[in-house]
Amino acid sequence: MPLPLSQQPVAEPVVAAPAEPVSAAAPVASSAAAAPASGGALVEARFDADYLQNPAPVYPPLSRRMGEEGKVILRAYVLPSGRPESVELRQSSGSARLDEAALAAVRKWRFVPARRGSEAVAAWVLIPITFRLES
After folding, report:
1. Residue 22 DSSP code
2. What is the pTM of this model?
3. In this model, does residue 53 exceed pLDDT 50?
4. Residue 90: which of 80, 101, 76 has the closest Cα?
5. pLDDT of residue 22
6. Which of 96, 71, 60 is nearest to 13 (CA)?
7. Do 68 and 116 touch, CB atoms closer than 8 A?
8. Helix (H) or strand (E) holding 64
9. How many CB atoms lie within 10 A of CB 89?
């Protein structure tokens, strides 16, 4: 029997508000991994733009039944096209099922690529994803 909406589990990316200080959980681009300097400051890659419509990871049914929750931090290398070339687990949630669900979802995401001046460049970005069961 399906759960009422108020009891449905949610898995959603956690996005830091632009006014907050940058922390390890905020999207971060590594200037060392970006294309060679061609003038202009590096503007980091983004995954939180509404128009990208990146779906939240699917909450694994077994994890839901077992009450597993946690925060996963992924690291993605975003190409100038906005596609992730590689996605790595930076910090585990403590559950392999939740980690794999986050990795599978982010591999399909689109990103706003990092920019140096007006040119799109490849760069790394950190992506925090929180799995939380609503009660």
Report:
1. P
2. 0.69
3. yes
4. 76
5. 26
6. 71
7. no
8. helix 61-66
9. 15
* SS3 assignment, position 63: helix
Query: Phi and psi (nearest 5°) for 106?
Result: -70, -30
Distance, in Å, from the CA atom of 82 to the CA atom of 125, rounded to the nearest integer, reads 11
Quick one: tokens of 63?
């994890």
Backbone dihedral angles phi then psi of residue 65, each to the nearest 5 degrees: -65, -35
Q: Which residue type is seen at 27?
A: P
What does the pLDDT average to over 38-53?
78
Nearest to 31 by CA among 128, 118, 119, 115: 115
DSSP letter assigned to residue 112:
B
> Average pLDDT, stretch 120-134?
95
47 within 8 A of 125, measured Cβ to Cβ: yes
Q: Tens digit of pLDDT for each residue in 64-121?
A: 999 999 999 999 999 999 999 999 999 999 999 999 999 999 999 999 999 999 999 9
